[in-house]
Structures are given as structure tokens and as C-alpha cells.
């Protein structure tokens, strides 16, 4: 079977992706009632040997409502009027999702302590504000 390149290091086998065709929803005239142009693409991410573990976990998390409890990612494409263009659209959307999951997550923020100078600046500002507010108050008896 042929392999579909996703990134430089990741490619998935064509046999891991299955397609079924359904009728598109919405308005479309006479043709919509008899032609199955919408594509339902299924990719079993949970059991895919092509995906590293980290990518698999991020993919299922990023897929959200498009992922089933069994770990399948389902993409429905019905933007276009032809079956061929919907197939291409569904596959491209799946590959984009896998590419986004393959990107390493950004490093987490390291907690740092404020410097001594920043603490002093903060306290000076508070003291200045306090003096300003005290000067605004009326005369005391």
C-alpha cells in the first residue's frame, strides 16, 4: 500500500484511512437528493502504528468532538459539490490536524521570583499613590 506523507518523519498508510460517502445536507436543488457527494473519513488514531505516542495523545485531544471513545478521528467534508474535491478536502483536513499534533508543545513557563529592584519600584509606587490620596482628603479637626 502507498503511504501518505504527513511530516518529514511521519507518514500514514492508505489502509489506515477509510472513506464512506453520504448525502450532503442543506440546499442543493434536484441533484442533492440522489448523489452522495459528502465524504466521511475515518482514521483509527488509537491503533495506528504510524503515530508516535505523544502525537497520538495530542491528536485525540485536539480532535475534540471529532474523536470517538474508541480513538477514531472522523472528518466529514461536504463543502464542495463533487465527491473528488470533498475527498481531497477531508484528507487535507486530517493531515493538517496530524501536523498540528506533531508540532511539539511550547515549553512551560519557568516560575521566577521578582527582583529586589522591581519590589522596591512597586513599593515606591504604592507609597507615592498613598501620599497623593492622603493629600486629597479634606482638613482634619
From TrEMBL:
InterPro entries xrefs: Pep_chain_release_fac_I
Any GO molecular function: peptidyl-tRNA hydrolase activity
Enzyme class: hydrolase
Region (Disordered) location: 99-141
Keyword annotations from UniProtKB, A to Z: Hydrolase
Coiled coil: none
Compositionally biased tracts (Basic and acidic residues): 107-127
Residue ranges constituting the Prokaryotic-type class I peptide chain release factors domain according to the UniProt record: 10-136
EC number in record: 3.1.1.29
Name of this chain's protein: Aminoacyl-tRNA hydrolase
Organism encoding this protein: Teichococcus aerophilus
Amino acid at each position: 500500500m502507498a503511504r501518505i506523507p504527513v511530516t518529514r518523519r511521519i507518514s500514514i498508510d492508505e489502509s489506515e484511512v477509510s472513506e464512506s460517502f453520504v448525502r450532503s445536507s442543506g440546499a442543493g436543488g434536484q441533484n442533492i437528493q440522489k448523489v452522495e457527494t459528502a465524504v466521511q473519513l475515518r482514521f483509527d488514531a488509537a491503533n495506528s502504528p504510524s503515530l508516535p505516542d505523544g502525537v497520538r495523545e495530542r491528536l485525540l485531544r485536539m480532535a475534540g468532538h471529532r474523536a470517538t471513545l474508541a480513538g477514531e478521528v472522523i472528518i466529514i467534508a461536504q463543502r464542495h459539490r463533487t465527491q473528488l474535491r470533498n475527498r481531497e478536502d477531508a484528507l487535507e483536513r486530517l493531515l493538517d490536524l496530524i501536523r498540528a499534533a506533531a508540532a511539539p508543545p511550547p515549553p512551560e513557563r519557568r516560575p521566577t521570583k521578582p527582583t529586589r529592584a522591581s519590589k522596591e519600584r512597586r513599593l515606591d509606587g504604592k507609597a507615592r499613590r498613598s501620599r497623593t490620596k492622603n493629600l486629597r482628603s479634606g482638613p482634619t479637626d
